[in-house]
Write a structure and sequence with these properties.
The protein has a domain at 33-84. The chain has 2 helices and no strands. With 85 residues, it is mostly helical. Helices cover 74% and strands 0% of the residues. Helix 1 runs antiparallel to helix 2. The longest helix is centred in the middle third of the chain and has 32 residues, at 17-48.
Length: 85
């Protein structure tokens, strides 16, 4: 499975609330995209799994789908907050 890292940057202590919200939206987007990539990798691993490993591989795929759904929901929540701001 691929390993992804999130780049963080040092921020000024005087950042505005809207700037914080924009950063949160971007972080949410990156997290969602990383989880989407993890779903694709888990799916391919499941499809390539040997018969005796398919159950475990499917469980990994299903867990990746759950994480992607949670990340997508959080990203949506952040976008809605930003739209309302």
């Amino acid at each position: 499975m691929a390993v992804y890292t999130i780049m963080t940057r040092k921020r000024s202590s005087t950042a505005s609330p809207i700037s914080d919200l924009i950063d949160a939206v971007m972080d949410g987007y990156i997290t969602w995209r990383e989880e989407s990539a993890a779903v694709e990798a888990a799916y391919h691993a499941w499809r390539r799994a040997s018969p005796n490993q398919r159950t475990v591989a499917f469980d990994d795929y299903f867990a990746a789908l759950d994480r992607e759904e949670q990340a997508a929901s959080e990203y949506r929540r952040l976008v809605e907050l930003a739209e309302a701001a």
